[in-house]
Amino acid sequence: MGKIKKVIKDNNLFLDLLNVILGIILVIFIVLILIHPTNTILLKLAFGIGGLMNILNSYKIYKQKKTPLIALSLFMIGLIVIFCGVFLIGA
């Protein structure tokens, strides 16, 4: 277990690992939404996780200092997705 933590820390893979975990959770929520289409709480959570993944990706791109405009646009898209999920779904 210590080797895995060392590899993640040395290669700055924490955001990637977090994105993979959130992606797996998002797929589970989407399958549950397909099974129970009237459940708006799962839909809001799926939108929230999708927006959070966009925001995490924007932070990763911003840290690379290559294309800050793309990072800003991903951040704004993430906020819009979260807004749509929280305020527009099931209104």
Automatic annotation (TrEMBL):
Record key words, sorted: Membrane, Transmembrane, Transmembrane helix
Transmembrane segments: 12-35, 41-57, 69-89
Domain of life per record: Bacteria
Record-given protein name: Uncharacterized protein
